[in-house]
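hey can u check if this looks right to u? its 377 residues, i copy pasted from the old doc so theres a chance i mangled smth
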Amino acid sequence: MATPCSSFELLATCGGARSGVLTLPHGQVQTPAFMPVGTRGTVRGLMPGELGDAGADIVLANTYHLWDLVGHERIESFGGLHQFMGWDGPILTDSGGYQVFSFKGYVKVSEEGVRFASPRTGDRQFLSPELAVEIQETLGVDIAMAFDECIEWPADRDRVARSTERTTRWLHRCLAARRRPESTALFGIVQGGMEADLRVAHAQELRELDLDGYAIGGLSVGEGHDAMLEMVEVAAPELPANKARYLMGVGHPRDIVENVLRGVDMFDCVIPTRSGRHAWAFTSEGRRNLRNARYRDDRLPLDPACDCAGCRQFTRGYLRHLLKNDEPLGKRLVTLHNLTYYLNLMRRLREAIRAEDPVALEALRVEAHVASDPAKD
């Protein structure tokens, strides 16, 4: 039996919140952790060193897009994804399961796998659980996600049940397809839609498989904040305490903090980077749209509490000028600021949990709700 390539050590708890360290082949991840999203092997507009300086331990890349745009074997010829993108820390790749949801109209799902019509070229492609594992292992990533079926919301109970059962069958095929368990961990994904009993049953079923880690998927698909929290609240306690728990595709600062309080360890989302490219900045004083005329003569830093390059060196008025005139530097600076804010939020959450300080955690919860809403000044 291969030696496990990952381990999770739980260091502290505070209420339902957890903090630990996830050890992977390319380094350690302090949790709770946020993973910047580098869909195509790059966090758009930023250098790898900037991500590390901002506090990122791990980044996420997209299996389907790398397969479609480059090819896993070509990336392997460059020495693997770490060498290809110049990032020497841990990498997690999703499996392509989210594209089953997001490419609606371009996919046909069967028991064998998913047939895609590439939105880019129109070419026919077929992705199976076995190929999803092969691609991720060939890329040489630290964490591969099992291939799952992420479905739309709303969906009737029968559809949710059938899809969840298929996700389980595909997980078993992923496990059988592994060839490099000593170098790439495999996380399974809990599904179950908005049906609490199906979520609980699926988490219990996957727990018995003693996987390298566990994700909660199929959320942040339009169901709303409260429904998401309800599903995490029922699923997370059913997962093993000694394995990392990852909530996929979430979210705004308030979503992250609320789910940390419910026992989640890892997060990813395009919101901070996509928002940065569209002039939205997350700050401790609220979310700012820097295209607004009110910032034209504003000489304050974007967020006085932040130490990123944009906040240290430039004013809101200058950032607005860059963004209004479509200067790439503006998009870069606000993207870097947003990731710095998110990663600093995770650091402060870790500190509060490890100090077993519920007052500090509550203060962070309040701040995260403020940061997620438009600034009032």
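The chain has a mean pLDDT of 96.
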